[in-house]
Design a protein that fits this description.
The complex is a heterodimer.
Chain A lengths: L2 H17 L20 H11 L3 E3 L6 H8 L6 E3 L24 E6 L2 E2 L4 E5 H4 L10 E6 L4 E2 L2 H4 L4 H4 L2 E5 L21 E6 L11
Parallel strand pairs in A: 1-9, 2-3, 3-6, 4-7, 6-9
Antiparallel strand pairs in A: 4-5, 5-8
Chain B lengths: L6 H9 L4 H21 L4 H16 L2 H14 L3 E5 L2 H14 L4 E4 L3 H5 L2 H6 L4 E4 L2 H8 L16 H12 L8 H18 L2 E4 L3 E3 L4 E6 L3 H7 L3 E7 L3 E2 L2 H16 L6 E5 L7 E7 L3 H5 L15 H5 L1 H6 L10 H11 L16 H5 L6 H14 L5 H14 L2 H17 L2 H4 L20 H8 L10
Parallel strand pairs in B: 1-10, 2-3, 2-4, 4-7, 5-8, 7-10
Antiparallel strand pairs in B: 5-6, 6-9
Classes of the chains: A alpha/beta, B alpha/beta.
């Protein structure tokens, strides 16, 4: 910060201190679990569908066959999970804009949110954040045991205090800017498919 | 000295449109209904509104401490924090960051603050090309217009308008008015700028003091692309956007998209705490009149606003006249109570662009007493002699009539009779602002007082049950 900006900082803080109203208390924030859904997976599926995403509940025995069948034209599949090779890994990208060459990115989310159908992604899972943003299609693995009830529970996740980038992604990108009705895609991923898949035990791939 | 913006006059052009005015009215009312439906799905909705209001009031009343806490945490995360007193300081900081890198292209997501600061023309005059990456904002940029709505900047435009605009600017098919096609044209034309820009910019919906994070909510993913693809992410944010904790963030996220468009959440709700390895992140904390508003006893509550636009979608004046008629960065009910704090003379007429029906207050997720503040601003305008002579005289007459019951009865009886015989020009003239663009309702045969006098039970008469 240069000296001019330091002056600005002091001026702003001085004006704020001089003008802020008498201190008011911070309320206690409940998690509202009295309205918790009984079946988190079913609520999650409904919420994802409402936001134009797809949830696959059946176990996928062979991930490669699944991806080839679902995305027959895909040439570049970027895998950010250890149990599947894909055609490239995030580490092979020299520049983050190179993720625009990706047809399908596959990754694992550490948390889903039943209330909204959101999945959590962070810079650690993604390694290169743009693989979730510039790729045409996204496939995300999620352990159904890691679905929480609502957004209050979601923001208890430690990632929001630890990670540099934490994204609650809910369905593929969309825009309601023309005519007020949301259409897909907008600037980001065109589709989002979530595979409910138990988290692998160390060294034992499950998909 | 600026002339006052005449919202009613500006609205005339929009009202004369046979397609746009009824379409906008219908579209925004549908959004209001979707908001109502979404709110009904959440049993604790009213409790969330009360919490959101209390959290904001707590934060604003301890704002200096939270700003310092944010700066400390963000700096520890590797973010460079700047402070800007006004729009010029803000714009200069952004320009210097671009110039240091020799960058001549900026990709940015929607930010009402940068509109408020008139940043785009500032940068363009200095040779920087700015690409708005939010679809609605880009449409407005290409059409050389400011945003008409804070959530959907081009919501007043029809698919036909956009198809013609894109065909002129991008060479797309002018006859294809399909929404998905038009969104695709935008995607195809914006993607190269995302990939080539070395600097990206976002606003912020919230700033979390506890973690030093900025939080951005979008549907398109354009903010995440603007922040993540280039090597420098600049975030501009007003000082009132700070909230204490991640725990409190949850309350606002549950309210924001539901209030705005009736969705449970935006597609991308992103927290940025610091730059990735090899990249940089700068946050500019902007005052631009906010600290002064904090000291306004009657009006500081407007700083609680989370920019959901629910008050616009429900406002009958906004829905019928469109956002551009306000001639201001912020429009609709929230604009009416914010804009006079920037320039009292210029926006002295805006508080009269309201029916004071209170609908805006009822839908506000952070319980800003919007319609009471609108009324408060009318009083301020009168106290500061900012009211036009015609309006002032009309109000003086109304005050005289309404405070004398006998005079009131004579007036209502006489006006009813007169309306039947007066020629059109005598009723519809510049003194009758209400009669512009609408017919005065047919006068009743008798006033309520006359009816009551004729129908009330006579003494000793038993009323019919």
């Amino acid at each position: 910060m240069n000296s001019s900006e330091a002056l600005s900082k002091n001026a702003i803080l001085g004006a704020v201190r001089g003008n802020q109203p008498a201190a008011q208390p911070m309320p206690t924030i409940p998690h509202f679990h009295t309205n918790k859904p009984t079946d988190l997976v079913a609520t999650f599926r409904e919420s994802v569908a409402r936001m134009a995403g797809v949830v696959v509940t059946d176990q996928v025995p062979d991930l490669d066959s699944f991806l080839r069948a679902k995305f027959p034209d895909a040439k570049v599949i970027c895998s950010a999970i250890p149990e599947y090779a894909g055609t490239i890994k995030p580490a092979s990208l020299n520049h983050w804009s190179e993720a625009s060459t990706i047809d399908v990115s596959i990754l694992r989310s550490p948390m889903g949110v039943a209330e909204t159908g959101s999945i959590l992604l962070s810079d650690v899972e993604l390694q290169v954040n743009t693989i979730a943003l510039l790729a045409h299609d996204l496939v995300v693995l999620l352990d159904p045991k890691q679905i929480v009830a609502n957004i209050h529970d979601a923001y208890d996740h430690p990632y929001f205090k630890l990670r540099l980038y934490s994204l609650l992604m809910t369905g593929p990108s969309g825009s309601g800017d023309i005519g007020g009705i949301v259409v897909h895609p907008a600037q980001g991923a065109k589709t989002l498919t979530i595979l409910l898949s138990p988290a692998p035990k160390a060294g034992k791939p499950t998909v | 000295m600026s002339h006052p913006v005449d919202q009613a006059k500006n609205a005339e052009k929009f009202l004369a449109e046979p397609v746009h005015e009824p379409r906008l009215d219908k579209l925004l009312w549908a959004m209001r209904l979707r908001r109502d439906a979404a709110a009904r799905q959440v049993p604790e909705w009213e409790e969330l509104r009360t919490l959101a209001s209390a959290i904001k009031e707590h934060t604003l009343s301890n704002l200096s401490e939270y700003l310092i806490q944010f700066e400390t945490r963000a700096t520890a995360n590797g973010v460079i924090v700047h402070w800007a007193r006004d729009s010029h300081e803000h714009n200069q900081i952004v320009y210097d960051l671009l110039a240091e890198r020799g960058a001549n292209l900026l990709v940015k997501s929607k930010s009402m603050l940068t509109e408020e600061c008139e940043m785009r023309p500032f940068l363009e005059r200095r040779g920087i090309r700015v690409t708005e990456t939010d679809l609605g904002e880009r449409i407005q940029q290409l059409d050389d217009q400011p945003p008409g709505h804070i959530v959907g900047p081009a919501i007043h435009k029809t698919n036909h308008d956009v198809a013609v605009l894109f065909s002129q600017k991008y060479g797309s098919d002018p006859n294809n008015e399909d929404t998905a096609y038009l969104a695709g044209v935008m995607r195809d034309n914006t993607r190269p700028d995302f990939l080539h820009a070395r600097v990206g910019m976002t606003g912020a919906n919230f700033v979390v003091a506890e973690t030093g994070a900025i939080v951005v909510a979008t549907n398109e993913g354009n903010a995440d692309l603007s922040a993540n693809t280039p090597e420098l992410h600049i975030c501009s944010v007003g000082i009132e956007k700070v909230i204490p904790t991640t725990e409190s963030l949850a309350v606002f996220i549950r309210l924001l998209a539901r209030s705005a468009i009736g969705d449970t959440i935006t597609q991308y709700t992103s927290s940025f705490r610091g730059p990735r390895k090899g990249a940089a992140m700068h946050v500019i904390l902007v005052d631009n009149g906010r600290s002064a508003r904090l000291g306004m006893k009657r009006f500081w509550h407007s700083l609680k606003c989370i920019r959901c636009a629910a008050c616009m979608n429900t406002c009958p004046v906004y829905r019928r006249s469109g956002g551009l008629s306000y001639g201001s960065t912020y429009m609709g009910p929230i604009g009416i109570i914010m804009m006079p704090t920037f320039e009292i003379r210029k926006y002295s007429e805006l508080p009269f662009s309201s029916t004071l029906n209170g609908s805006c207050t009822n839908v506000c997720p952070v319980k800003i007493d919007i319609h009471e503040q609108i009324y408060g601003w009318r009083e301020v305008m009168e106290e500061n002699d900012q009211i036009q002579v015609v309006k002032k005289e009309a109000m003086r007459l109304a005050d005289e009539v309404l405070s004398h019951p006998a005079l009131y009865q004579i007036a209502t009886t006489t006006v009813s009779a007169a309306l039947e015989v007066l020629p059109h020009f005598a009723v519809y003239n510049r003194l009758n602002a209400w009669g512009k663009h609408r017919e005065v309702p047919e006068a009743t045969k008798e006033t309520f007082h006359e009816w009551y006098k004729n129908h009330r039970p006579k003494r000793n008469e038993v009323p019919v049950p």
